[in-house]
Each structure stands twice: as structure tokens, then as C-alpha cells.
Automatic annotation (TrEMBL):
SUPFAM superfamilies: ATPase domain of HSP90 chaperone/DNA topoisomerase II/histidine kinase (SSF55874). Member of the two-component regulatory system NreB/NreC involved in the control of dissimilatory nitrate/nitrite reduction in response to oxygen. NreB functions as a direct oxygen sensor histidine kinase which is autophosphorylated, in the absence of oxygen, probably at the conserved histidine residue, and transfers its phosphate group probably to a conserved aspartate residue of NreC. NreB/NreC activates the expression of the nitrate (narGHJI) and nitrite (nir) reductase operons, as well as the putative nitrate transporter gene narT. Its main location: cytoplasm. It is found in: Cytoplasm. It catalyses: ATP + protein L-histidine = ADP + protein N-phospho-L-histidine. Its cofactor is [4Fe-4S] cluster. This is Oxygen sensor histidine kinase NreB. It comes from the Bacteria. One of its GO terms (molecular function) is phosphorelay sensor kinase activity.
Length: 400
């Protein structure tokens, strides 16, 4: 995506290129008009002169106007073009002196058509039509060329340096714009991560508050009602109401605990990541009756709560997929603590599948959650070859 300033710069460059491309037509038309109006020869000879000038115009149109992509990109076609221009100019100056006005344009065309140092050779070669003009004082012409040629080369070099500087500035501006966009994207990612961390912290705080207030109060009410019930309250309206109150209190306590579980990261409450994953593996092994081994490598360290929750959910999702689809006889779960990332590997010897063909909402949601933390999810599988799921999450912070 280009900025307005960059688009204006490209537009100005395109207009300058068009001006350099069409300028020779104007000079050639002017010199041709002078030659025709001041010629002492007859119309047949003037028609030949006009035809040669038209040939030069067509030559220039084909190489420069019709194929602008050849400029400064294809040396040999443009070298042929420039040699042709000098040949046409040499013929024209011998037919009429007015075409000497076109020769300075050859200096310009040398820099238009030829890249790098060949342009300076073209400036020197542009003097050939001067030397071939009839009635030329060779010594005076050589003196003039010795002065004019370096001056033309200097002016052309300065213009070319200015063009290079303009291109460099435009490219630098484009890089700065790209860097600014990338910084904005990274800033947005950091803001999103900070927001997610803030939400997680607030949810954990609400879970603690509900646990310490409402849940504790309901637990006390249930305990008191059960204690009253134990004193053998005679059957009747009072006993019925106590039973109803006890049932309502228990139901409310279950709902409150369900709300607490929804607010906090469950197994991570009071446990570190390694223990939480080990507990998930143990629970899965008891549920499905499939041997499952859990290994921790590296030095365990406290991680940002969002990282821990993401890795734990990844382990639970991978194990759930194995239990429902893989038909595995063994599962190996490895949690690796590295210098700047934590890696979870879940491997099974089940039926496998073709990645990209199979995949449910759970795996897609897991990938989105991991990528939100600038992590990666790699799935390797093949029919009959088992499945390996690797989750890599950077250590983006520490949750003390």
C-alpha cells in the first residue's frame, strides 16, 4: 500500500519520463520545419529529408515511447537504438545544417537510453554528427567538443544522481511506512494481549470473590441446615420447609461452583502448569483406559497465566481428539521448558489422518488461541502412522 506522497512521486517520475520521451519529437519537428522552409533544393530532395526525419521519429518511437520498460534495463536494445539515432542524425546534418540543432538532444538521449557508464560513452559518441557535418572547421569543432562534452556529461551525471536520490528517498519512505504499519500491528497485538491478560486477571479476581463470599456463605447455610436436620425435627410443615431450603441451598452452591469454574482456569488454580498437565493426563488415562506417559524436560518456571491456560487447553484438546478418534494403544505427552518458549508434544500410535482434510472446531479454535500468543501449532500425521501435535508458545511474560 503506497502513501499519497509516494503516489505523487511516482506520478512526477512518470511525467518526467514522458517529457524526456516526447522531447525529441518536438526538436526534430522544429529542425525539419527549418530545413524544409530554408532548403535551396527542390521538393523531391526535401521529401527525402522529411522521410529520413520521419524514419528517425519512428525509430525513437519504437524503442523509447512504445517500449518504456527498456529504459535503463536492457543495454543491448538501447545501444542499438542509440547507434541508430546517431546514424539518422549524421545523415540529416549532411543534408541540411538545421539538423545540427538536434545533436544536443543526442546528449540527452544518451542518458535516457543507456544505463551507468555506457551513458558517458554515448555522450562522447554523440559528437560524431558534429564531425560529419559539411563545412566543419575540425580544429574549432574539436575545441568546442572538448569543452561541451564534459559539460554535457556533468549535467547528465548530476540529473541522474538527483533521480537516484529521489528513488532512494521514495524507497526509504516506503520502508518507513511498512515499518510503521508493522509497529502498529505489533502494538495492536500487545494491546490485545494486555487486554486478554487483564480480562483473565479480572475473571480470576471475580472467581476468588465469589468463592470467598457467596460460595462460603452457601456452604455455611447447607451445613447449618444439615445440622438442624440431624436433630430429628418432627415431620410437618417445618421439616418440609427445611428440606426445601436445604435443596435450594445445595442447588445454588452447585451453580456458584460452576460459575467459579467457568471464571478461573480450573486445574491451574493452586497448581503449576506441569502438575496441571499431569493431572489432565492421569484423568484421561483413567477415563479411556489407554496407557499414557507424561514427561517434563528442562527447568520448570512460572509462566504467564495466559500461556499456562493455553498450553493446558492444548493438552486437553489433543488428548480428547486421541480418545475420540485415534484408537491409540499408547500416548506420550511431553512438556519442554526451553529458554524462550515452552513446547507441548502429544504423540499417539493411532489410526492417524491426512492433515488438512480432517479437523474439527476444537483444533481450529486451539490454533487460533495459540496464534494469538504468537505461537505455532504443528500437526504431523498420516493414515495408519499415528499423530503428533506440537504446540510452541513463547514465554511472553511471567505470572508470579
Amino acid at each position: 500500500m503506497t502513501t499519497v506522497e509516494e503516489r505523487l512521486g511516482l506520478l512526477r517520475e512518470r511525467r518526467w519520463n514522458q517529457a524526456w520521451g516526447f522531447a525529441p519529437f518536438g526538436v526534430l519537428f522544429l529542425t525539419c520545419a527549418i530545413a524544409v522552409t530554408t532548403a535551396s533544393r527542390g521538393w523531391p530532395d526535401q521529401a527525402v529529408t522529411v522521410g529520413i526525419a520521419a524514419g528517425l521519429a519512428g525509430w525513437h518511437w519504437w524503442f523509447v515511447v512504445a517500449h518504456p520498460q527498456w529504459w535503463d534495463r536492457r543495454v543491448w536494445p538501447m545501444a542499438v537504438y542509440f547507434v541508430g539515432v546517431l546514424a539518422f542524425a549524421s545523415v540529416l546534418v549532411q543534408r541540411h545544417d538545421a539538423f545540427q540543432l538536434f545533436i544536443p538532444m543526442c546528449y540527452v538521449l544518451a542518458f535516457v537510453a543507456l544505463p551507468g557508464w555506457p551513458a558517458y560513452l554515448g555522450v562522447v559518441a554523440a559528437n560524431v554528427p558534429w564531425l560529419l557535418a559539411p563545412g566543419t572547421d575540425l580544429r574549432l569543432t574539436l575545441v568546442n567538443l572538448a569543452v561541451g562534452t564534459p559539460l554535457a556529461a556533468l549535467i547528465g551525471g548530476v540529473i541522474r544522481a538527483m533521480e537516484r536520490e529521489a528513488i532512494r528517498r521514495r524507497e526509504t519512505n516506503a520502508e518507513l511506512v511498512a515499518m510503521a504499519e508493522e509497529n502498529a500491528r505489533l502494538h495492536g497485538l500487545l494491546v490485545e494481549q494486555a487486554r486478554a491478560a487483564g480480562i483473565a486477571g479480572e475473571r480470576a479476581r471475580l472467581a476468588r470473590e465469589i468463592h470467598d463470599t457467596v460460595a462460603q456463605g452457601l456452604t455455611g447455610i447447607v451445613t447449618q441446615l444439615e445440622a438442624i436436620d440431624e436433630h430429628a425435627v418432627p415431620p410437618g410443615p417445618v421439616r418440609a420447609r427445611l428440606e426445601i431450603a436445604g435443596g435450594l441451598a445445595r442447588t445454588s452452591l452447585v451453580e456458584v461452583r460452576r460459575s467459579i469454574e467457568a471464571l478461573r482456569p480450573g486445574p491451574l488454580q493452586g497448581a503449576r502448569l506441569g502438575e496441571a498437565v499431569r493431572q489432565a493426563v492421569t484423568t484421561w488415562r483413567e477415563q479411556y483406559g489407554v496407557p499414557a506417559a507424561f514427561t517434563v524436560t528442562g527447568t520448570p518456571q512460572p509462566l504467564h497465566s495466559e500461556v499456562e491456560v493455553t498450553v493446558l487447553r492444548a493438552a486437553q484438546e489433543a488428548l480428547s481428539n486421541v480418545g475420540r478418534h485415534a484408537g491409540a494403544r499408547r500416548v506420550d505427552v511431553t512438556l519442554s521448558y526451553m529458554e524462550d518458549v515452552v513446547v507441548l508434544d502429544v504423540r499417539d500410535d493411532g489410526v492417524g489422518f491426512t492433515p488438512g482434510v480432517a479437523g474439527g472446531f476444537g483444533l481450529t479454535a486451539l490454533m487460533e488461541r495459540v496464534r494469538a500468543l504468537a505461537g505455532e501449532v504443528d500437526v504431523e500425521s498420516a493414515p495408519g502412522a499415528g499423530t503428533a501435535v506440537s504446540v510452541t508458545v513463547p514465554v511472553i511474560g511471567v505470572d508470579g
